[in-house]
């Protein structure tokens, strides 16, 4: 439910430790202004990332930007 998810996302520790034997999910989002990325295990985020796009990359297609968000 919504309240359980909110509690899980706000209680300490907020970030999980990376475990190579556990499945992780990486989600990306790209726009013409920046790239965002989050890697999480089944319950908590492990790492967040974002990057501002300079003028030379603002002309890239969204699919190309999504790939760059992973790298």
Question: Quick recap of the structure?
Answer:
This protein is 25% helix and 30% strand. The chain has 71 residues and is α+β, with helices and mostly antiparallel strands.
Task: Please render the helix and strand layout as text.
Layout: H1 2-10, E1 25-30, E2 34-40, E3 45-52, H2 62-70
Antiparallel strand pairs: 1-2, 2-3
**Shape descriptor:** elongated
Q: What is the total tally of β strands?
A: 3
Which class best fits the helix and strand makeup? alpha+beta
Question: What percent of residues are in strands?
Answer: 25-35%
Radius of gyration, in angstroms, nearest whole number: 15 Å
Unreliable stretches (pLDDT < 50, length at least 5) are none
Order of helices and strands: HEEEH
For the sheet with most strands, the description reads:
3 strands, antiparallel
Average pLDDT confidence is: 82
Helix segment tally: 2
